[in-house]
Design a protein that fits this description.
The complex is a heterotrimer of chains A (735), B (325) and C (197). By secondary structure, chain B is α+β, with helices and mostly antiparallel strands. Helices cover 30% and strands 22% of the residues of chain B. Chain B has a five-stranded antiparallel β-sheet. The N and C termini of chain B lie far apart (49 Å). Chain C has 197 residues and is of the alpha+beta class. Chain C has three domains: 42 residues, no CATH class; 77 residues, Beta-grasp domain (Ubiquitin-like (UB roll), Roll), CATH 3.10.20; 66 residues, DNA polymerase, domain 1. Helices cover 36% and strands 14% of the residues of chain C. The longest helix of chain C has 14 residues. The N and C termini of chain C lie far apart (64 Å). Classes of the chains: A alpha+beta (735), B alpha+beta (325), C alpha+beta (197).
């Protein structure tokens, strides 16, 4: 009967965790229910700079279910923060609850813990804090000018060697800060299961990273901290760091000796989990009349906090895509009374690429050349332009060709401001983006049962990228075991160690580990099979074939041992293998990149300033695509993020108060469904021969990197108006 | 949120009998619950008036009556509204999200408070929140703020779209005060300009209830449009919005209505431009001249100068769209 | 490089000064603002509440301040409904009340007497998923999955309301549900699929 049912109900297509996600059963960090759990609420400072003079808890304590407070005045011991020097050495960033100094408005200064969320929230509103204020500055625009540049990377050629270039574009580009805003607000449930054991349910992109950061602060053994992050409601970089609120929850749990749940509010997401810093850039780009680039001078500055310096490495991408004989890159940091910035999707490259791709577009109009041809002429298609290593694979030119075909690039009127439909001006724009394709040391394990079921495990999180599904697909392809007999377990620090999910390295890293684990499994099963059939003895892994029911040899398919026999003969329970896979010698021989080309068609209403994106096409080279649907989803989603960057996203300050204004999702706009067209995504799909055993490169970053420039270039083509500051809101169009 | 008592009332008499200071009425809750979470409103008692007031749309003597408890979605999809007052439907659908429109009541929409970011940020001064504390927006980040009718004490704008259509259609607000006296306030006089007392959004007597909105018969069903310009395609408050309605005879404009949101402390009628349009034949030039009259009245602040161009474009676009039938 | 401004201090002086003005403002507003100054911390109001969620009647004592969203997530262990902003600005908390999509974060639980609440946990028929759930799986209408329950509840309503005539129509009527992963392609496709069947 069971077999019959299976025949008539084919297994669902879709992600491994799909059922949990569409039924609401999957548990995100704040959704675990623990005995004795209480609720914590963080309070931020209301001034931007100064000192805490006094905290009056009288009113807050009148809320009956309040259990405790944590602040610099009352706190459990954090051995790793025992002295100023140790705080510094910990590199934790903000020394939460260990200072009376205020570095930015909203800085967490006290944690209120109560029996219910309602009580904790209300009590938090009753805490009264007295400050001694000090001067502050949150104004990036009026501050960056005074900060001197320093060299960013080695200069190539000479800056003045191309001073007589036939065509030069020299322009400045400003991008407002953007906030990650994953839909799930960051949350941590902290539970001290014993004096020296800690359980954390945490929203993070890397469970092992949380262990590494927290363990030394409390003199704990790493493995005595279990971090559970099975479901992560998005990250985009915000989960790559361990932020102050995580420590706050842990300290709170220690203080009240009970499990504590702390979920940030949306306004706290603006100041508690990083952001893409505001930036200023200047590009000077020179070319000869044929369109050959002669040189580039790229300068960039980004804002940073006072307590921690973060460079977004904006000029890095300038060394990646094109050949420039002469290249000089410089950058600088502008410290302000703001919270720490961090990596946000396509960090640095997203920002730098916008400036370069807009400058190239501008250059192509000066040259009266097709922007596509200008790029084709200069793309470093064979070698990494900086370190001169040959690309292991680079299909950026193919991406451009395919994208141009899809949007009908050659059918457009190339002149700007020339295509109109009433008040709507139509324009086409394109750009390219690239990302260093990385790979990190990652472990994966496989557990196999007698019925042929396997569990594939890694500590890596799946923040929505489809990591688990990719792992399943690889395991299925290599073992022949049907998908419904493969279970994926991830996002827990007890599982085989893995790096954080970020920088487009997730699939590239874990895929190698899964391949290696499968190979180990084959060898191990062959060893057991050799007990009954000697032909399996010392069989090389490439000759071993697994299937749903048993093990056989490639050259002798009839020689087969069923799993049930194998388990019986060897009196096995569960067969476990674990493999670790890491980049190696190939990194010395080749350079690795993912790339994409974005094309878009916009309509701009010259009367109202409205911009509508009619078409957005994205063609990417991400090596082998392990999971086509999830990969396309990643790319289109990243493009939606690019629309936000191009047209609406901005973290705004009131420079007088030093605080944010409009710090909620009504004040900070990112794209709704109606802002995006149905995005057309396609892949080159050729495996990279060297990056890892599967040939999969990363995709998460290249999906967004060129998007904003493509849109800005299309707006220029539509209107003749060159807008170099993001976001391009209606007011800019109308100015 | 501060603790509060919740009392459900089933008639206006009971509702109005609770004259305590810290009592507030609640209907859909889409604005009030938010304001309570933000510690901007701190009522001791909430009176749930959902069952105390009318929740249907009636037509009597060619006048349409919309009960205070009618949900936004119900206005947008009501057959009589769609046929006779399509401008209302267009305005409603330009606002908020389907979920919020399902919850939000007509009375609540009219009484909703400003979305000025300083009003929402209790760490800054705001004369609407704390009278006399000062207006942070006047010399602050005022991109979203008013361009007409403001004072140094307040540059906030009224956030409603529906109200822009109401004012354009000469609606009237039916009110019951605490003495159970019924009265009618013309929509145009319902909301106030900030002046020196911006903490008062409107002229509704203290603790009084809005019972329903009356809209007189009008000839604007055929040629009307609602244009809203915002920072994204949907689910955002207006930078500027325009309700336009024309009564046409051939190419001649017999009567015109023009009103805007996102420009002032109240939904704003452009009476001078309406007067200019009356009797004119439609043309791009005439529309542009009407828009110029409007823009000539504006006094933008430091960060919202763009609203002049934007409003001009929106007025022209709305008028042109009135003719697309 | 730091600008010297005394604004903050001035502001606090001004705010404090403001309370002396309270005498001149109407009672209703005074009531609102005077709390800041007074020391009486009111006790929470706990009321007996009967609420029907997914056709199951729950009887419990509830704080009047508890929103439907917090009731579901913190008291009834129905964590499928998500908190994405808690202020009606994202749609992650969308549920159905009497069959209409609403935001549970702006709904006070105590106002739900006599109403039927449906959450993501209540739309499947036993092991048979709702067609919209099936469509979200097969069209990959999500990535991280956090906005997904809200998207699905909204999508079911979108189809029921009949706003599926075009991609634009669907997109407009689904714009009350933010998705930061940007899985809008798959969301639209899911709705088209269900609307067509």
């Amino acid at each position: 009967m069971r077999y019959f049912e299976q025949q008539h109900q084919p297994p669902r297509e879709g992600r491994v965790e799909a059922l949990d996600k569409v039924t609401g059963k999957g548990k995100y960090a704040a959704e675990y229910k623990l005995d004795g759990m209480c609720y914590a609420v963080l309070i931020g400072s209301t001034i931007a700079s100064g000192k805490i003079k006094n905290m009056d808890l009288t009113k807050a304590k009148q809320v009956k279910s309040v259990i405790g407070f944590v602040s610099h005045l009352q706190k459990p011991e954090v051995p790793g923060f025992a002295s100023e020097a140790m705080i510094k050495a910990s590199r934790f960033g903000l020394p939460i609850f260990h200072t009376d100094t205020i570095y930015f408005k909203g800085q967490p200064i006290i944690l209120v813990i109560a029996e219910t969320l309602e009580d904790a929230t209300y009590a938090a509103s009753l805490v009264e804090v007295e400050y001694e204020t000090a001067p502050f500055n949150v104004d990036f625009e009026s501050s960056y000018g005074a900060v001197p540049m320093k060299e960013a990377g080695k200069e190539r050629g000479k800056l003045d060697a191309w001073s007589d270039a036939a065509v030069v574009v020299q322009e400045e580009y400003n991008i407002k800060p953007e906030v990650h805003h994953p839909m799930e607000m960051h949350a941590t449930i902290a539970q001290w299961t014993s004096e020296d054991h800690l359980m954390l349910y945490d929203k993070t992109q890397g469970v092992n990273n949380v262990q590494q950061v927290i363990a030394p602060l409390f003199n704990l053994k790493k493995e005595h901290i279990e971090v559970m992050s099975e479901f992560v409601g998005g990250g985009f970089g915000s989960g790559l760091r361990v932020w102050p609120h995580v420590l706050a929850a842990i300290m709170g749990a220690k203080q009240v000796k009970r499990p504590v749940k702390l979920m940030l509010t949306r306004p706290q997401m603006f100041i508690g989990t990083g952001y893409r810093p505001a930036s200023w850039q200047r590009i000077k780009l020179g070319a000869d009349l044929s369109g050959k680039f002669l040189g580039i001078h790229h300068q960039a500055k980004n804002e940073t906090s006072l307590y921690e310096r973060f460079s977004d490495q904006i000029t890095r991408v300038t060394r990646l895509i094109y050949n420039f004989d002469h290249l000089k890159t410089e950058d600088a940091l502008v410290p302000l009374n703001i919270n720490a910035a961090t990596w946000m999707r396509g960090p640095g490259d997203c920002t730098g690429d916008f400036a370069i791709e807009c400058a190239i577009d501008e250059l192509s109009y000066k040259l009266k050349m097709d922007p596509l041809d200008v790029r084709s002429k200069n793309i470093a298609a064979t070698h990494h332009p900086d370190n001169k290593l040959p690309w292991s694979s680079n299909y950026l030119l193919d991406c451009m060709t395919e994208g141009a075909k899809r949007i009908g690039w050659k059918n457009r009127n190339a002149a700007p401001n020339a295509m109109r439909e009433g008040d709507w001006h139509v324009g086409y724009g394109m750009s390219v983006g690239m990302w260093n394709a990385g790979r990190n040391k990652t472990s994966a394990a496989i557990k196999m049962m007698s019925n042929g079921q396997i569990i594939v495990q890694t500590a890596m999180t799946d923040i929505g990228t489809g990591t688990g599904t990719g792992m399943k697909n690889i395991a299925h392809e290599l073992t022949g075991i049907p998908r419904n007999k493969i279970t994926i377990e991830l996002g827990n620090s007890n599982l085989p160690p893995a790096p954080s999910q970020g920088g487009s390295t997730g699939m590239s890293s874990v895929s190698g580990a899964v391949v290696d684990a499968v190979n180990l499994l084959k060898l191990k099963l062959a060893e057991y099979a050799a007990v009954t059939n000697l032909k399996f003895k010392d069989a090389p892994e490439e000759s071993i074939v697994l299937s749903e029911t048993g093990i056989s040899l490639a050259h002798e398919p009839t020689v087969k041992v069923s799993y049930s026999d194998l388990w019986k003969t060897n009196k096995l329970d569960t067969v476990v293998v674990e493999a670790t896979s890491a980049p190696g010698e190939e990194r010395k021989k080749y350079a690795f990149c993912s790339s994409a080309a974005h094309f878009c068609q916009v309509r701009v209403n010259i009367k109202t300033g409205k911009v509508k994106i009619d078409k957005l096409i994205c063609v990417a080279d991400g090596g082998k695509i392990v999971n086509e649907k999830a990969a396309a989803n990643q790319m289109s989603g990243a493009a939606v993020g690019g629309i936000g960057m191009a047209l609406m996203e901005e973290r705004r300050f009131d420079h007088r108060f030093g605080g944010l204004i409009g710090d909620d999702l009504a004040g900070y706009h990112f794209p709704v469904n109606a802002d995006a067209p149905i995005i057309d995504v396609s892949f080159i799909g050729k495996p990279d021969p060297h990056i890892n055993p599967t040939g999969a490169k990363g995709l998460g970053e290249v999906g967004i990197i060129g998007t904003a420039a493509a849109i800005a270039n299309a707006i220029y083509h539509a209107t003749g108006k060159r807008l170099r500051d993001l976001p391009i809101t209606a007011d800019q169009i109308l100015s | 949120m501060k603790p509060f008592e919740l009392i459900k009332v089933t008639n206006t008499k009971t509702a109005l009998s609770h004259k305590k200071e810290q009592v507030q009425y609640i209907a859909g809750g889409t604005n009030l619950v938010d304001l309570m979470k933000k510690n901007i409103h701190l009522p001791d008692t909430l009176l749930d008036i959902n069952d105390a007031l009318i929740r249907h749309i009636d037509k009597k003597d060619n006048r349409i009556f919309i009960g205070a408890m009618v949900r936004n979605t119900e206005i947008a999809t009501d057959k009589t509204v769609l046929k006779e007052l399509p401008l209302l439907s267009k305005a409603v659908l330009a606002g908020a999200s389907p979920q919020i429109r399902n919850m939000a009541s007509t009375g609540g929409n009219i009484l909703q408070r400003t979305r000025c970011p300083y009003f929402y940020d209790i760490t800054t001064s705001c004369n609407k929140r704390i009278p006399g504390s000062g207006c942070s927006a006047y010399e602050g980040e005022n991109r979203m703020s008013a361009v007409i009718g403001y004072s140094k004490d307040c540059v906030a704008v009224h956030p409603s779209d529906l109200c822009v259509a109401f004012v354009a259609l000469d609606a009237q607000v039916h009110v019951i005060d605490t003495d159970h006296k019924k009265s009618i306030i013309p929509f145009q006089d319902f909301h106030r300009l900030p002046g020196n007392d911006p903490h008062l959004d409107n002229n509704l007597p203290e603790h009084a209830l809005i019972s329903f909105i009356e809209i007189p018969e009008n000839p604007f069903a055929r040629n009307c449009a609602y244009i809203k310009i915002r920072d994204r395609a949907s689910y955002a408050f207006a930078l500027v919005s325009v309700a336009a309605a024309l009564h046409m005879q051939g190419d001649r404009i017999i009567d015109a209505r023009l009103a805007s949101g996102g420009v002032a402390h109240k939904p704003w009628r452009w009476l001078e431009a309406e007067e200019f349009l009356r009797g004119k034949n439609v043309s791009d030039l005439v529309f542009s001249q009407a828009a110029d009259i409007i823009v000539g009245d504006l006094h933008p602040l430091a960060h919202n100068g763009f609203k002049s161009n934007m409003l001009k474009g929106a007025v022209e676009t709305a008028l042109a769209q009135c003719l697309v039938v | 490089m730091k600008k010297n401004t005394n604004f903050s201090r001035r502001f606090f002086l001004k705010t404090t000064g403001a309370f002396t003005l309270l005498a001149s403002i109407p009672a209703v507003l005074k009531a609102t603002y005077i709390q800041v100054k007074e020391f009486i911390v009111p006790s929470k109001r706990i009321v007996p509440l009967t609420v029907s969620v997914n056709k199951k009647a729950y009887q419990l004592d509830s704080d009047t301040r508890t929103t439907l969203l917090d009731l579901l997530r913190e008291n009834l262990d129905l964590t499928g409904t998500k908190k994405g902003c808690d202020h009606g600005q994202c749609g992650a908390c969308t549920v159905h009340v009497d069959g209409e999509r609403v935001l549970s974060c702006l709904t006070l639980s105590a106002m739900l007497v006599g109403k039927e609440v449906t959450t993501i946990e209540g739309i499947a028929d036993g092991d048979h998923l709702h067609p919209m759930q099936e469509a979200f799986i097969s069209c990959d209408g999500f990535q991280c999955g956090y906005c997904t329950p809200g998207q699905i509840m909204s999508a079911i309503a979108c189809v029921k309301e009949g706003h599926t005539h075009s991609v634009e129509d669907i997109k407009e009527y689904m714009s009350g549900n933010l998705c930061r992963c940007g899985a809008y392609n798959g969301i639209v496709e899911s709705i088209q699929k269900v609307a067509a069947s």
